[in-house]
Amino acid sequence: MLLGDSATYSGIPEVVAGRVELTGVVSSGDVPRLLLSADGFANGMERGINRALEERALVPTAIKLGAGVMTIETVPRAQVA
């Protein structure tokens, strides 16, 4: 990116079948599309979040959004039937 350029991605996080997924992801302007598509961003975020939860033996159950904050509620994998 060039000085002064910015990239913004937005989407809706959801818990689907015990995994975090981002839906409706969009990017702003032309710069993000040149570097990372909206699908690429969503896939990278999903993989990173889900891998971190799996490494800690946690399963997401809900997501709460606040002003600039996303909270992922979890339970231990052992509690999931």
List the helices and strands and how they pair.
Elements: E1 9-16, E2 19-27, H1 31-35, H2 38-55, E3 58-66, E4 69-76
Antiparallel strand pairs: 1-2, 3-4
Number of separate structural domains: 1
The radius of gyration over CA amounts to: 15 Å
Large-scale geometry: elongated
Measured by DSSP, the beta-strand proportion falls in: 35-45%
Oligomer: single chain
Main sheet makeup: 2 strands, antiparallel
Q: Order of helices and strands, N to C? A: EEHHEE
Count of individual helical segments: 2
Fraction of residues in helices? 25-40%
N→C terminal distance? 46 Å
- Helical/strand content category: alpha+beta
Question: What does this 3D model show about the protein?
Answer:
This protein has two helices and four strands, in the order E-E-H-H-E-E. With 81 residues, it is α+β, with helices and mostly antiparallel strands. It has one domain. It has a two-stranded antiparallel ribbon with strand order 1-2. It has a two-stranded antiparallel sheet with strand order 3-4. The relative contact order is 0.18.
Can you describe this structure in just a few lines?
The chain is α+β, with helices and mostly antiparallel strands. Helix content is 28%, strand content 42%. It has helices spanning 31-35, 38-55, and strands at residues 9-16, 19-27, 58-66, 69-76.
